[in-house]
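Pipeline run #58 for the internal structure catalog. This entry was flagged by the ingest filter as a single-chain record with no existing model, so it goes straight to prediction. Upstream metadata was stripped on purpose; only the residue string is passed forward. Reviewer on rotation: M.T. Logging verbosity set to normal.
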Amino acid sequence: MRPRRFMQVDVFTDRPFAGNPVAVVLDAAGLDTAAMQAIARWTNLSETTFVLPADAPGADYRLRIFTPGAELPFAGHPTLGSAWAVRSSGTIAGDRERMIQQCGAGLVTVRVDGPRLWLRLPPQRHRALDAGQNRRLAQTLGLPSTLQARAIDVGPVWLTAELDSDAAVLALQPDLPALARLSDELQVTGAVVFGHRHDGGDGPGYEVRAFAPAHGVPEDPVCGSGNGCVASLLAAGGRGTDYVARQGRAIGRDGFVQVHFDGADIEIGGHCVTVVEGAIRA
């Protein structure tokens, strides 16, 4: 065991102790998969990341991403938080306006836009659920009526469904064991639900919640990949207009996700704040 640089970054917020934290091990070379998973269980955050030397042409660094229960090929808030960490720690030059992350989903571009970071969402694949699967999903979420959800693959695969309003989203009380069983059966990460906000803000906006109990994350405070699935679903319905999503209020966090439609591409952006900086022994 040796000291390894460690940061904890709150993502999708411009103030500490809000948004969604990610733990970042900045010099993870030499750690095997079992050690990474053990560290992720120990931090007990929705995701912990491990920065490694890149081995793909054009990449600046390689990132492995773990929930407390499994490794993910890609995730949004860990990508932005890790990019913030490698840039602010000097792991790569702090004046870079673009960074290329290598991960299980391929190469992901992160760009710097003043105080915000933006990632370009990987290609998305959609699959409709059948009537029985939609009914079971509604039951696990505690909804009296069925849904028209899609399984959207952006690396993680989220069952993505729209509700009538932000109030309906905030009122959800899902049956998490049942959702974990359904997620395992359908081989998905979890469920993301969203509804139009009616809080008087300017422009379109949505309230979002994400649940991944099968991966050890009962509710993800602010989920970048889940918000990417929401944006992809809106775009597929011809509703691709830039907006700001809000997530985390239901569990005492509060994060804001910027969504930008660049032609056929989707960008997810937000602020990041360093909260913890030091070392762990691993």
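catalog note: The longest helix spans residues 76-88.
catalog note: The mean pLDDT is 94.
status: ready for reviewer M.T.
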